[in-house]
Write a structure and sequence with these properties.
Chain C: Keywords: Cell inner membrane, Cell membrane, Membrane, Transmembrane, Transmembrane helix. By secondary structure, chain A is mainly α. By secondary structure, chain B is of the alpha/beta class. Helix content of chain B is 44%, strand content 18%. In chain B, the strands form three sheets. A five-stranded mixed sheet of chain B has the order 2-1-3-10-4, sandwiched between helices. A four-stranded mixed sheet of chain B has the order 8-5-9-11. In chain B, strands 6-7 form a two-stranded parallel sheet. Chain B starts with a helix and ends with a helix. Classes of the chains: A mainly alpha, B alpha/beta, C mainly alpha. Chains in contact: A-B, A-C, B-C. The interface between A and C is large, with 63 and 65 residues. The structure holds sodium ion (2 copies). One sodium ion binds next to loops of chain C.
């Protein structure tokens, strides 16, 4: 069956391809298809959590401003105006944690790393060790976060203002745990390229720049 | 017995959000001391005050449910999401005085609620009630009758029923101001006052900003010492019985510590030249009468309990 | 070995080792906590609870809002307007740009709570100008880095919110904010005085006097500009904006004033709201977001709608770091409480000496050393639960607000010092100077900072006077 391709659908297609959101079956045959599928799944996951995080942030601002307006203009308040933003910030924080893992945003102390030569085995080992640590953290959040959520599910109890069940506060933990586990597994297996970032431009490495300058200066002197 | 001492004691944790030295904290320590003594060292309780373990009472309740914590001293109000009947004892202008409340709590109504907590499958055990005094308004203007409340802006906790209460009195309830910022909000004229018990009124220094304490005693929400079903599986049946018994024994101790605390706060506040206004019986009745719509709205599910409480109140005029 | 001791060693030792081998601070905290919990037999689900507990907090919302506000401002290129105003105020004196550098951070401090943002946005304009006028590049970068620390002290500052959270909620953010104002401005004025006293030592060039002749001189200066000069583009924008200054047109002066005052109104919104209790810190931060959004998108129109995605991404990036740290640090400090480590440290410190002044000195040295190696937010989260009980007990009897200001000042110094100082790194990258040479040029400024730190540590009035007279 042949499709009639409109310019619109080809635009969508090229967007999906350029963002790695579609699997090109023709290009990846046999066993190569599995990593490609995983990569695409990873990109979709992150697209989704980025949108959720952005909507959560925007909603928080709007809700808080709305509370102030209601209080000073209409002399009323909404009872859940504290509870819902709190749930949103929890969701946001955990999603941000996962996003931070994907793009290596979390701060680390690089003294040892920078003192080793580029491409040396120590550097490689440090990177792998870090990924293993993140994998463990992800698994911890996934397994114990889910256990905790499930146990609370079986117990009664509601949030005082919204009346929502208490377990929903804990869902962000296994959610972030899942994404972190997924990401670090793909990094460790080399399916995802560490250099390819989703959310940000490559971080400017100031230490490197400064080091370079220093070298240039000393070369100039000699 | 020498064998008993050789057995490793069961160590249990108790979480308390109030600071060291607060009446409930003193009672927690007393509870821990008595349990260790009566179980002959088989059960040891570590008390963590000042919210160092769990910063919020709701958090400690969830920890009790899971069994990560053995005891927590919390206000009755968050427990109401597990045993809704507890809402009944928190209604405004319900009690005529403190003795009335204790007759209710230590009587059939209160003890039934305590046992309901354990029966609710929430994983919680209600051990005993502690006193938290009564909350009253403190304002920058004197109030003797309901009419004086008209147009006042009063900081309230984020609680629909309490906001409704001040609305029915003709005032406006302002939520969203943290307890640390009440003082400045009053001095800057953003609000005309707030409401709390004697110790908090004194402790936060709010009496320097709002010079009238209107002793309307609108609510008396007791504290509850909760246990965890899960965590207390670690102790024997006999020891659990001892724990339950000891908890009840610490109630009197806490009530007397609370009275001391309240008296010293009252003395400081009065010495600072604060005007304390006690409502006349007629005025109190007028405040009470304004609450009819609120009882309709929030209390209709517990009419029986409320009627029982009011019935008991006839002895405490 | 007994389990408590072993899990204490694992908790603290494990954390430092993991951090040293490049594991991100957040995860180093979490893994050492989990290992320690495993040894002491604490249930892992408690740690999930604690992590959620750490971020499930209404006050915490102020942090994303303040960061979002700062991002909107920098997308709106507010830094140029701030420098113009600083130039109008102190630019005319001998060594004018050095003073501008001190003053701009004072103004910018009211908008941003971040020293790094200050260095990268103000520094990238001021440093090239200073170099061109004849200041040494190292001195220019150093001064920019050191002055940027005012940003974390002068309100609003999300680090103060982090401190209030780490301290367990008994601290009014309004008091912290207002308490930081005098120490922040004091630091700025001290650096200004330092520049003034050493104006001949450093052979500062003449300033740009506002007068008819000066405008000509300024134009001449700009014409002779070296074409190879790296910063031409930014300097040109600066010249275009600031030329009116030198022609002394009253109208233009007022315009500069307005242009800078509108962004600086955020501090009025935030401080006015928080100090009077009209808004909570969280609410004022949300309103400041709305205000800056209207300012950059409708009044200045310096940011385009498609920049907004970028703003959100940048905000997300900073928050990914800060919020996650708050979550894991909470689990870490739970484990510390569980092992009674703060008690242990208190007892050890008090057993060394019971002299209040010596104890405070020890704490300062400890913080300064730690600050050289670690960033601000994690240190606030980790050190507050340990140190606050020590300083508030009867031996020292410090006010928690005063301690918070002292803590943040200490850690701000750490931002400017090698080996790990994010403000210093960004500054050196912006000014293309080496860390060693810049640090050497900063020695005098470090002395000024440490002197200020000592004054703020030992004279509580600096931090507590303003909160007390404003009655909050
Ligand atoms: Na500066
Ligand atoms: Na600031």
């Amino acid at each position: 069956m042949r499709e009639t391709k409109s310019p619109y659908s080809s635009k969508v297609r090229s967007y999906l391809v350029s963002n790695h959101l579609i699997v090109d079956v023709a290009d990846h045959k046999g066993l190569h298809l599995i990593p490609e599928l995983l990569r695409t799944l990873n990109h979709w996951t992150h697209k989704l959590i980025l949108y959720i995080a952005q909507v959560a942030l925007a909603l928080m601002v709007v809700l808080v401003i709305l509370t102030v307006v209601l209080r000073y203009v209409f002399n009323t308040g909404i009872g859940w105006a504290e509870e819902v933003p709190r749930l949103l910030v929890t969701l946001f924080a955990f999603l941000a944690c996962a996003i931070g893992v994907r793009d290596h945003m979390h701060i680390s102390v690089n003294i040892l790393y920078n003192s080793c030569k580029e491409g040396s085995w120590v550097r490689k080992a440090l990177v792998i060790f870090t990924d293993v640590c993140i994998l463990l953290c992800g698994l911890f959040l996934l397994v114990y976060g889910w256990q905790y959520t499930k146990r609370l599910m079986s117990l009664p109890g509601t949030l005082p203002m919204t009346g929502w069940p208490t377990f929903i506060q804990y869902i962000p933990a296994p959610l972030a745990g899942f994404v972190m586990t997924f990401d670090s597994l793909l990094f460790l297996t080399g399916i995802l390229d560490r250099e390819e970032l989703l959310y940000s431009e490559k971080e400017v490495d100031y230490t490197k720049i400064v080091k370079q300058q220093h070298e240039n200066v000393s070369e100039g002197r000699s | 017995a020498p064998e008993a001492a050789a057995v490793k004691p069961v160590v249990l944790k108790l979480s308390e959000v109030h600071a060291e030295g607060y009446p409930t904290s003193l009672a927690d320590h007393e509870f821990a001391r008595l349990v260790e003594e009566k179980t002959q060292g088989r059960v040891k309780i570590e008390v963590y005050t000042g919210g160092t373990l769990y910063g919020q009472e709701t958090a400690s309740i969830e920890a009790l449910q899971i069994g990560d914590l053995a005891f927590a001293r919390v206000s009755a109000s968050p427990v109401a999401s597990y045993v809704p009947a507890l809402n009944a004892i928190q209604m405004p202008y319900l009690y005529n005085n403190g003795a009335h409340m204790w007759a209710v709590l230590n009587g059939e109504v209160g003890q039934k609620m305590l046992s309901d907590i354990e029966a609710s499958k929430s994983g919680l055990i209600g051990l005993c009630y502690y006193d938290a005094g009564s909350r009253s308004f403190y304002l920058t203007k004197p109030v003797n009758r309901v009419a004086d409340m008209k147009g006042l802006k009063i900081r309230m906790q984020n609680n629909q029923m309490m906001v409704r209460m001040v609305e029915l009195l003709g005032a406006t309830g302002v939520t969203g101001i943290g307890p640390n910022d009440v003082y400045s909000a009053i001095t800057q004229g953003v609000i005309d006052g707030a409401e709390n018990n004697w110790p908090t009124y004194q402790n936060m220094g709010d009496y320097e900003a709002a010079k009238y304490y209107i002793l309307d005693q609108h609510t008396r929400v007791p504290e509850i010492l909760l246990g965890s079903v899960e965590a207390l599986k670690k102790v024997s049946k006999e020891d659990l019985a001892i724990i339950k018994q000891v908890a009840k024994e610490t109630q009197e101790f806490e009530i007397s510590e609370w009275a001391k605390k309240e008296a010293s706060s009252e003395q400081i506040v009065r010495a600072a030249g604060t005007t304390v206004i006690s409502l006349s019986p007629e005025a109190f009745a007028e405040f009470q009468s304004k609450m009819a719509p609120l009882y309709q709205e929030f209390g209709s599910a517990y009419t029986d309990t409320i009627n029982k409480i009011k019935e008991i109140g006839k002895q405490f005029k | 070995m007994d389990a408590t001791l072993l899990s204490t060693i694992v908790l603290l030792g494990g954390f430092f080792v993991l951090m040293f081998v490049k594991v991100p601070v957040t995860f180093a905290l979490l893994i050492s906590t989990l290992c320690s919990a495993f040894i002491s037999g604490t249930n892992f689900t408690v740690m999930v609870r604690m992590m959620i507990d750490g971020v499930n907090n209404f006050t915490l919302l102020a942090i994303p809002f303040f960061i979002l506000m700062g991002e909107i401002m920098s997308a709106g290129k507010v830094s140029d307007k701030i420098i113009d105003l600083a130039n109008l105020v102190v630019g005319r004196f001998k060594g004018g740009l050095a003073y501008v550098n001190c003053v701009d951070s004072m103004f910018f401090g009211g908008i941003s709570g971040s020293a790094v943002a200050d260095v990268s946005s103000l520094g990238s304009v001021v440093v090239p100008l200073m170099v061109k006028q004849g200041y040494s590049p190292e001195f220019s970068v150093g001064l920019t880095v050191v002055t940027s620390c005012q940003g974390v002290l002068i309100p609003p500052s999300h680090n103060m919110v982090i401190y209030a959270l780490a301290a367990g909620g008994g601290i009014s953010i309004a008091r912290m904010f207002i308490g930081g104002a005098i120490p922040g401005i004091f630091l700025g004025l001290s650096l200004l005085l330092y520049c003034f006293l050493f104006r001949n030592h450093y052979r500062f060039p003449e300033g740009m006097r506002i007068g008819k002749g000066d405008s000509v001189r300024w134009l001449k200066f700009s014409n002779t500009m070296d074409k190879k000069w790296r910063y031409t583009k930014k300097a040109e924008t600066f010249l275009i904006i600031s030329t009116p200054l030198f022609t002394l047109e009253m109208g233009k002066c007022i315009q500069i004033l307005l242009n800078a005052i509108l962004p600086m109104m955020t501090i009025v919104i935030i401080m006015g709201g928080v100090a009077t209790g009209v808004f909570t810190a969280t609410e004022s931060a949300a309103i400041a977001c709305l205000y800056t959004f209207i300012l950059t998108y409708f009044i200045f129109r310096t940011a385009r709608l498609r920049d907004f995605g970028h703003i959100l991404k940048n905000t997300l990036k900073t928050l990914a770091i800060v919020l996650t740290l708050i979550a894991t640090a909470k689990a870490f400090s739970y484990m510390m409480t569980d092992l009674r480590i703060p008690d242990l440290i208190t007892r050890t410190l008090v057993s060394i000496t019971d002299n209040k002044y010596v104890l405070l000195l020890i704490i300062n040295v400890l913080l300064l050393v730690l600050g050289c190696f670690m960033d601000m937010a994690p240190l606030i989260m980790i050190m507050t639960p340990i140190l606050l009980p020590i300083v508030t007990n009867e031996v020292i009897g410090m006010n928690p607000i005063h301690f918070g200001i002292m803590l943040i000042f200490n850690l701000a110094v750490g931002l400017c010092t090698p080996p790990v100082g994010s403000a210093l790194f960004v500054g050196c990258a912006v000014g293309k100077t080496s860390i060693e040479k810049t640090s050497k040029a900063m020695l005098g400024m470090f002395v000024v900072m440490l002197a200020c730190l000592m004054i703020i540590t030992y004279i509580p009035a600096f931090s507590l006077f303003l909160p007390s007279i404003l009655g909050i």
